[in-house]
Design a protein that fits this description.
Layout (H helix, E strand, L loop, with lengths): L1 E3 L5 E7 L8 H19 L4 E6 L2 H8 L2 H13 L2 E7 L23 H17 L7 E5 L10 H25 L3 E5 L10 H8 L7 E6 H6 L4 H10 L4 E6 L1 E5 L6 H4 L11 E3 L4 E2 L2 H7 L5 E7 L9 E3 L1 H10 L4 E4 L16 H20 L4
Parallel strand pairs: 2-3, 2-14, 3-4, 4-5, 5-6, 6-7, 7-8, 8-14
Antiparallel strand pairs: 1-2, 9-12, 9-13, 10-11, 10-12
Helix pairs in contact: 1-12, 2-4, 4-5, 6-8
Length: 371
């Protein structure tokens, strides 16, 4: 959706399709009809934005086949859908039965990660609306944190330099600008905005910047205004914002029976306490039982708070939306299918209802309609 902030700034709002499992072109087109079109209709929107996720094999195939890219563009246009941003964090199999640490591989020490990201940029330039100023691709913040010796840091930096060169070449060839946004995440080489500044220092910040995932920001216990100021002072742009809320609990001991329902086998749910205790998954936090409060990397629906005694980090999300300067906002709740029983959708129509509810909530936050 194309919106305007209260001060008149134009922004794009989309939802990320990594919540859906399709990993080939027919499956991706099919999910447009199953989910995206019903979401657009529920919102009564002329055009709905998608933060498209393309697994590496289909991204490579599309990058090599101009007619296939044009076909995808026609299918999007015919359904009132548009794409200005791609999610390039998961490489493939993001909705597999077990994902956990696999989502961080291949990392930015590898040519495979570089090739995938440039494939996405090549695809995106043909999907961008004709009047779009630029596109964005989000990606992981280099790698999972261990091991990370100097040799791997140097290898990743070499890939980032080659990425910037590749993006510049794409812009020269096509006249379209695509920027890549590195997404700080708990447990990664860059978990905080301070680490993101270090990661991107000396790179081409006309091409490279940060994807600010607001659930991750909350789990790092960062103040949104401080984080945004830190990035701006360092000259690092916020290329993309992932609008997401983390799970929060003030008293983990009292809430244990409810928290146990969120410990599930597919995704990592890194848990951080206000005192700085770090656990790399919720089941580890439940075993170690550090004092609360905790924030848990479990993306919860924006418009539907979890049942007490749990809460969500939506107050921090609102603070961040008020101070961040960005034009691409992507709702990224990919965890609908692993919510506790009774909270997860039981049909495609139910999932479309949930996604539409999140987008309506975010639209109101961005435009000031909630005030």
């Amino acid at each position: 959706m194309r919106l305007r902030r209260p001060d008149g700034r134009p922004v794009h709002l989309s939802y990320c399709t990594n919540v859906h499992p399709a990993e080939d072109l027919p499956g991706i087109i099919g999910q447009l009809d199953t989910y995206a079109v019903p979401v657009r209709e529920r919102l009564d929107a002329d055009v709905l934005g998608l933060g498209l996720w393309l697994a590496a094999p289909v991204a490579a195939a599309l990058a090599d086949d101009g007619e296939a890219r044009r076909l995808l563009r026609r299918e999007l246009d015919a359904r009132g859908l548009e794409v200005v941003t791609l999610n390039g964090f998961p490489y493939e199999a993001f909705q597999a039965p077990v994902v956990k640490h696999a989502v961080y591989r291949p990392d930015w020490t590898t040519t495979a990660r570089l090739d995938y990201t440039l494939d996405l940029a090549r695809v995106l330039v043909d999907l961008l609306p004709d009047d779009a100023e630029r596109g964005s691709v989000s990606t992981l913040p280099l790698a999972w944190r261990e091991p990370w010796p100097q040799a791997q840091r140097d290898a990743a930096r070499h890939r980032l330099d080659r990425l910037a060169e590749g993006l510049a070449e794409i812009a020269w060839q096509t006249g379209r600008v695509v920027r890549v946004a590195f997404e700080p995440e708990p447990g990664c080489v860059a978990e905080t905005t301070t680490q993101a500044v270090d990661m991107l220092a000396g790179t081409d910040t006309d091409r490279l910047g940060v994807c600010l995932d607001l659930a991750h920001l909350a789990c790092a216990w960062e103040d949104p205004a401080d984080a945004v100021t830190r990035l701006a002072t360092a000259g690092i742009p916020v290329v993309k914002v992932q609008v997401s809320a983390a799970l929060e609990v003030a008293d983990p001991v009292a809430a244990r029976p409810v928290l146990e329902q969120y410990a599930e086998p597919r995704f990592l749910h890194q848990t951080r306490s206000a005192a700085g205790h770090a656990c790399d998954d919720l089941d580890l936090a439940l075993a170690e039982n550090p004092p609360g409060p905790w924030r848990i990397h479990f993306h919860v629906p924006l418009h539907a708070p979890p049942a007490p005694p749990l809460t969500a980090t939506t107050p921090l999300l609102r603070e961040a939306l008020a101070v961040v300067d960005c034009d691409h906002f992507d709702v990224e709740t990919y965890t609908w299918d692993v919510l506790p029983a009774g909270q997860r959708p039981t049909s495609p129509a139910g999932l479309a209802d949930g996604i539409a509810g999140e987008l309506a909530w975010t639209r109101d936050q961005l435009t000031g309609a909630h005030a």
